[in-house]
Fold each of these.
Amino acid sequence: MNLRAILTTIVVLIAALAGTIWLGRGNSTLETGNSGNPQKSVEDDRPQVSETGPYPKAVVDEELYKFGEMAVGQSLSHKFVLKNEGEAPLEVKKGNTTCKCTLSEMKDNAVAPGESIEIELIWTPKTPQETFGQTATIWTNDPKNQEMKLQIEGTVNNLISFTGDSLGSPNWSLPVMSTEEPVSFTGKIHTKYLDDFKILEMISSNPGLTSSSKPLTPEELKEVDAKSGYGIKITGDPNKFPLGGFMERLTVKTDIPNNLKSEKPDKAHKHADHDGHDHKHDEQAEYKEFVIQVSGNHTGPIRIVPTFGVHWNPKTMVLNLGEFDSKEGKEVTLSMFVEGTEQPLKILSQEIVPDFLKFELKKDDKFQSKTKQRYELKFGVPAGKPSMSFGRGNLANVKLQTNHPNAKEINFRVRFISL
């Protein structure tokens, strides 16, 4: 071997030795740091098994209980019975649990041979679930059964069901308002978990929307697999709604307690305050109320026909301009046919949001009809405006006040995205 090869081998060996020493120092430091305050393991809390015997024997009547169906917010419980069939006291301790778990009292913290205790699992679901499962772990000093898994299973539904229920939010639609005659829709509110409940009050967000209720008949309850419920009739008065699509709210207040274990009130109670006067207290805030979304469309004496390629929704009276280049802008044209008046339609006032939205109404004098008039509607976003979006929740709006006796107010809503 030549001198260069020998020198190279010596350098490699020295580098390897230095690295080994450095790594050894690093590991020594880590071990010293960890050995100072060792963390207590969860396993240390388990009951200790005797090395010589005699031994206890833990026997549970069942390890899985199926609740079946239950309602959101409803607290249900089940008691498992744990018996000691062995020859020594059975030590029992609660381990990890995904629900509330309680153990009945034990003398000297142990179950004597031949005796038993109850282990109660309590579950209060917060949301609907097709299948739910909860588990409680029980530790014992039975050498053959040191860890026991107690389980509960079931299905969670909404406490109250509605016609048109969608993910817990009922949506009802009124028939189209095309004349001055009121229109109505009847839906149902019902439950399979309560023998009885009362509707205390129904409040509408629009004075033109009224409501009434009556208990469901036994036949109607059977159809929806319910114990109790009501039919709710909602009526819309076209004279109190502007033309266009609308979305209103009907708040239904009930006597169902927010805590299902609390009692229902008969009336708002009175008590004497420090000044000696009686004061009423509204307890309805402690009880469940539900909101029904009510949608509809008031077309009245007008009918709108879009030109080719224009996206118009006649049910909601929403014009969708789609996406377009903000540098170029966009403009569309629709035809509007008006009945019920011989006088030309005039705009008395208008509100346009955003204010740069272009709107134009022009009568078609060439259109010949004894019962109708035709108008040309133009909507547009001017070129050169900044990029913006008007969509669900913040639609652009054109509100008109007119001279038509049956179309005094007309609302057009517009959605678009300019890029």
Amino acid sequence: MTSASVGALLRTWRVRRGISQLELAGRAGSSSRHISFVENGRSRPSEEMVLRLAEHLDVPVRERNVLLVAAGFAPRYACTPLDAPELGVLREGLERLLGAYEPYPALVVDATYQVVAANRGIAMLLEGVAEHLLAPPLNAMRITLHPQGLAPRIRNLREWRAHLLAQMGRQIALARSEPLRALYEEVSAYPLAERGRPDEGEPAEATSLIALPLVIEHAGQVLSFVSSISTFNTPMDVTVAELAIETLLPADPATAKYLRSAGP
């Protein structure tokens, strides 16, 4: 492919980030003239320049490979299968992390919300979910929002659904992913369950000023969680870059007590 192709891609990322050529040049130690020449194909960027611009534009690792190939270079970042021996230490570390978080729920998902690992806290919450949703590969968004999944038990479904769809929308805007877009279209079309808002006095009231809680029933008990998502810092592999660890922190003492009594 020609350098014009990489220039067009870089321009798309720059516009998407809302950064001017002058601002990008300042961040990358270049000049706005050179950035302009790269974008319009008059200058062929070096491999180092492509990577530097991608870094300052916060381009996802997978898309950095696309930029490199478009500029005539080999991909820099591997895409190692998660079950490959090279990632054995990573898998072991994730399993230890999830286990240490018990009895509180925690899971690991990939870029399209496929569940790659989960602890027993998550397994407890999935009790009663339709079997077809639990057949591999499990998808966290599908399980959460499907009418035969967790949705009927989520007390603040409208708010939580809006939060999840907005999260997916932001990801789609940042990266070209047809599988993610297809998932978004699928789950956003699910009908809403009858229940849509928490009743007065439920745990969501106490945490609403801190963060939007997930308020969900389990075995007749109303549980409230605050979600936290972590990713790996400066990953050099596409697979690792696209992993996200989500932990559900009890949002009130009653939830923490219930999980400790019901957990392993």
Amino acid sequence: MTTTEPAVGQLLREWRERRRLSQLELSSQAAISTRHLSFVETGRSRPTPEMLMKITEHLDVPLRERNQILLAGGYAPRYPQHGLDEPELANVRAALRAVLTGHEPHPAVLINRWWELLEANDAITFLMTDVDPALLEPPVNVLRLSLHPDGLAPRIANLGQWRAHLLGQVRRRAVQTGDAKLAALHEELVAYPGGTGPALAPTDVVLPLRLRHEGGELSFFSIAATVETAADVTVDELVIESFFPADAGTAERLRELVGG
């Protein structure tokens, strides 16, 4: 059997619909005629690479998919993709490592678009007790590690709340990107037990991750950071998720664990 790759017009239409924009809205934003955009989507007109770059920028298409659209249009990809260990990304990797290390004694991880673990600081090891070693075999998926019954799930005191939060993140990103791998990950995670938890109280300002740990409970909230000026596919998909103590007891306990 052979498969036919989607035409460039079809891909553009799918991304436009994914962003819930009409042809009129997109053509107005991208400063092209609605008639021309319609012809491009139906295959009656071949877009230039410059037009594809303009449209995909207005549609906020990730760099990986922009390259795919350019290829579908018969053009060479515009965005390189280097491995994180390659010399071209040495400065970026050094900066990311500095962020991870500088965040200690609090945990922080570097992940890609599929939540696969690329690097972590030393503080994260203190949270991995009683985890099935099979879940720590590369590539480690931090969501699977969190929600799997043999992972952190039995130790998460508010598993229902945290599970709903993570599932919502994966579902939204799968819809936003049309990524089949993310959709499959969402289906896998939904099948894990855990239920749903109570809604946040009106006085809550963040959703905490409440993790049972020897000697007490640790409570965290997280902040995610990306490289906003990325022009490389790999860099565009990198995310640092930093965990901060949600209470004074957690902050003190982390200083004892990491400091010791």
